[in-house]
Write a structure and sequence with these properties.
The protein is of the alpha/beta class and 259 residues long. It has one domain: HUPs (Rossmann fold, 3-Layer(aba) Sandwich), CATH 3.40.50.620. It has eleven helices and six strands. Strands 3-2-1-4-6-5 form a six-stranded mixed sheet. The C terminus is likely disordered.
Length: 259
């Protein structure tokens, strides 16, 4: 790990904590980090707020989304609405066709429901590998992670050095509450995925996401069958796909490569 990069990330983390608003945070990020800064958006509420701030700041940031091939139609509608609203290009990054063919030939169309390892392998092919490709050569990576989203994210910093990618990972709304987020969305009339109004606070691929029930955690609708299967549930909380906890999943997610 680069000591200089670590020190720079720590300094930026402290500076972002005191920035007056989200647009100021985006401008600070752009001014502090040379080279290409990439923003990976899933088109959720958090990412739509960040997208709005990028447009408001007129920041030169490379925006992309992972086109897994299994999005809800409403997610695709959100991409179109966002591009109509903002003068920004949103690149669609797709998985390698050969990787998808190998995966489905081995596990089947819905094989990711058979085991956590199979589900992680699917996420690896459709999301993690395309992310790595899209981030190649970037010096900064912006996400919409919030500490309040899940127990696994409660310590998310504003900025940290990512040794796997050799860049600074940035989470400009890490400290936002859901109330702050929803207020920002409403105040600025930001386009959002229609599924949010139908009980989908967290939206991923269509076969892997359902609406949540009253009282459930906001990410309970992601890979819900794992919580309902005693064998899977015994392995603990698995509500991450590998995009933001890759070191832990690197070995499990290498299955397809070995096939």
């Amino acid at each position: 790990m680069s000591q200089l990069a670590t020190l720079s990330a720590a300094a930026l983390d402290a500076a972002l904590a005191t920035a007056p608003d989200l647009t100021a945070r985006i401008r600070l990020i752009r001014a502090a980090i040379p080279g290409r800064i990439a923003f990976s958006t899933s088109l959720g509420l958090e990412d739509q707020a960040v997208l709005h701030a990028i447009a408001e700041a007129s920041a030169d940031i490379d925006i992309f989304t992972l086109d897994t091939g299994r999005h809800f139609p409403e997610t695709l509608d959100t991409i179109a609405a966002s591009q109509d609203r903002y003068p920004l290009a949103i690149r669609l990054v797709a998985p390698e066709a050969d990787d998808v063919e190998t995966l489905t030939s081995r596990d089947g169309v819905l094989g990711f429901r058979n085991s956590i390892e199979a589900r992680k392998a699917c996420c690896d092919v459709r999301k993690v590998r395309p992310l790595m490709k899209a981030l190649k050569g970037a010096t900064g990576w912006i996400t919409g992670l919030r500490r309040e989203q899940a127990a696994s994210r409660k310590a998310v910093p504003f900025a940290e050095f990512d040794p796997m990618q050799g860049l600074v990972k940035l989470n400009p709304i890490a400290d936002w509450t859901l109330t702050q987020l929803e207020t920002f969305i409403a105040t600025h009339d930001i386009p959002v995925n229609a599924l949010h109004a139908r009980g989908f606070p967290s939206i991923g691929c269509a076969p892997c996401t359902r609406a949540i029930r009253p009282g459930e955690d906001s990410r309970a609708g992601r890979w819900w069958w794992e919580a309902e299967n005693a064998a899977f549930a015994a392995l603990g909380d698995q509500k991450e796909c590998g995009l933001h906890n890759r070191p832990k999943l690197k070995q499990a997610n290498s299955q397809v490569a070995r096939s």
